[in-house]
Amino acid sequence: MTTTGAAVDYTAAVRALDAARSVTILCHVQPDADTLGSGLALARVLDRRGVPVRVSFADPAELSAGLRTLPGTGYLVPPDQVPAEVDLLVTVDCGSTGRLGRLADRLAGATATLVIDHHRSNTRFGEINLIDPDAVSTASVITALLDEWREPIDADIAHCLFAGLATDSGSFRWVTPGTHALAERLLATGIDGAAITRTLMDTHPFAWLRMLSTVLASARLDREAHDGTGLVAAFVLASDLSGVRQEEAESVVDIVRATAEAGIAAVFKEARPTDERRRWTVSLRSKDSGPATDDGADVAEIATGLGGGGHRYAAGYTTFGEPEEILAQLRAALG
Ligand code: MN
């Protein structure tokens, strides 16, 4: 009922969690509500069972204001407090080891590793891989796992899982059969779904409006890209982010991708300068959300080719260079 991945086997994951003396849960870098909500929900269940648990992520040093409202942030430890050798190591919402940042080296020192994810591009880097590419969110996979494990979902766990589900489904726009049933079940615990989504997705400082006006004014449309699918691209320069938080840049792609003339949207976000080379994280979106549509492209394939990964309709990668160079690089990859 919670996911559509009937073929996914939860037995090995449940067995590993049952056997663990302690658990270290790692979320991906630049954590979003799905990775953090999944991690904190699982941590709460383990804590309730009396199993020592910690949750961590490599970057950045501080959580966004929105994510700090999730219950269970007390389980978080800074990355340097994650020992080199741990018992069971669980990664949540990480498609590849690169998503762990500098914590990726902890995989080698773990007694056992369990990868829980929903990215189709997942490289299955764990000893146990619980991957459901049909699940809307990792939070959905966690819910099915808890059902299999016969662990009840209380309001705090539901809050964390709802945050992941609401975020990864784009506020219930990209849904599959079962998405709303899961939301209903989580809401029935008494959580305030409207407040959770408003806090996580619809709250920005005033300076965000200025940033948007600059960034959107610079957007470019290339109708010929990818055999006429069309590409709309926008750049968020580090200087555009003065007065707003880096996370504010994440909202840009949701506006840019609405462009009717382009099946593919790209937003290039410049990292705060650390050396001479300009570093960018790139968000790709496609209107192709499944076999029923044919006006887009599989952006996971494109992102993977550029060293990243993701879903067919939402993916990303990291690149270096000047704006013209990185746009040309993407244009070449699109064909
Ligand atoms: Mn996710």
CATH superfamily grouping of the largest domain: inorganic pyrophosphatase (n-terminal core)
CATH class of the largest domain: Alpha Beta
Mean pLDDT: 93
Give the terminus-to-terminus CA distance.
Answer: 40 Å
Measured by DSSP, the beta-strand proportion falls in 15-25%
> Roughly how much helix do the residues carry, as a percent range?
25-40%
Arrangement of strands in the largest sheet: 6-7-8-9-11-10
Task: Compute the number of strand runs.
Answer: 11
Number of helices: 11
Low-confidence stretches: 1-5
Present as ligands are: manganese (II) ion
> What value does the Rg take, in angstroms?
19 Å
Largest sheet: 6 strands, mixed
Please state the structural category.
alpha/beta
CATH level-two architecture of the largest domain: Alpha-Beta Complex
> What would the principal axes of the Cα set say about the shape?
globular
What does this structure look like?
It is a single chain. The protein is an alpha/beta fold. About 30% of the residues lie in helices and about 20% in strands. The protein contains 11 helices and 11 strands. The strands form 2 sheets. A 6-stranded mixed sheet has the order 6-7-8-9-11-10, sandwiched between helices. A 5-stranded parallel sheet has the order 2-1-3-4-5, with helices on one face. Strand 7, helix 9 and strand 8 (about 265-270) form a beta-alpha-beta unit. Helix 2 (about 35-50) packs parallel to helix 3 and helix 4 crosses helix 6. It is globular, with a radius of gyration of 19 Å. Residues about 1-5 have low confidence and may be disordered. The protein binds manganese (II) ion. The site of manganese (II) ion has 6 residues, from loops. Manganese (II) ion (MN) binds next to loops.
